[in-house]
Amino acid sequence: MSTNNSANRGDAPGNLTIGEGVKVVGQLVVPGLAVINGTLQGELQADELLVGPKGSLSGQVRVRTADIHGTTHETLEASEFLCVRGTGRVNGQARYGEIEIEKGGVIRGAISPVGESIQPAPVALPPSVPAPADSADSAE
User: Fold this and answer.
1) Which residues, listed in sequence order, are joined to residue 118 by a DSSP beta bridge?
2) Fewer CB in a 10 Å sphere around the end CB: N or C, the chain?
3) What is the C-alpha to C-alpha distance for residues 28 and 132, in angstroms, rounded to an integer?
4) Cα-based distances in Å from 74 to 42, 61, 106, 107
5) Where are the chain's structural domains?
């Protein structure tokens, strides 16, 4: 078996695969690629993350790149790149270096670029909404 083929499947040295139907609870540090096709609850630090279409991840996640086809909950930080695929669901707080959301992908919660604090977005009135009556009266 070639090294490239092995790395593509997530079973190369430094990589981790959680298979469909497998549930892991705990704190994981993965120097390479973490592939989640089952369920992970806890903390994950990895270079790369791939959450498969049936994968579910809950907890504190810090990675360089994340490719989300399944579901995440709580906190996800992808310092370089976050991609939410058409089947992907990100719930909670997400930080990213760069972001891509495919048609059908969903983010529920707060998102911000790495380095900025996550705050609720201010509610702004569109320019076509007239000012309240008392401000118009005071301008006269």
Assistant:
1) none
2) C
3) 54
4) 10, 8, 14, 12
5) 22-117
pLDDT digits (tens, 9 = 90+) for 10-23: 568 899 999 999 99
65-121 per-position pLDDT tens digit: 999 999 999 999 999 999 999 999 999 999 999 999 999 999 999 999 988 765 555
The Cα–Cα gap between 78 and 4 comes to: 24
Strand, helix or coil for residue 138: helix
Tokens 């401000």 correspond to what residue?
135
User: Which residue's entry shows tokens 């490719």?
Assistant: 67
What's the sign of the alpha-carbon dihedral 51, 100, 118, 107?
negative
Q: How far apart are CA 113 and CA 130, in angstroms?
A: 33
Encoded tokens for 35 = 């592939």
One-letter amino acid at 99 equals I
**Element (H or E) spanning 98, and its range?**
strand 89-101
Answer yes or no: pTM beyond 0.90: no
Nearest CA to 67 out of 58, 53, 59 is that of 53
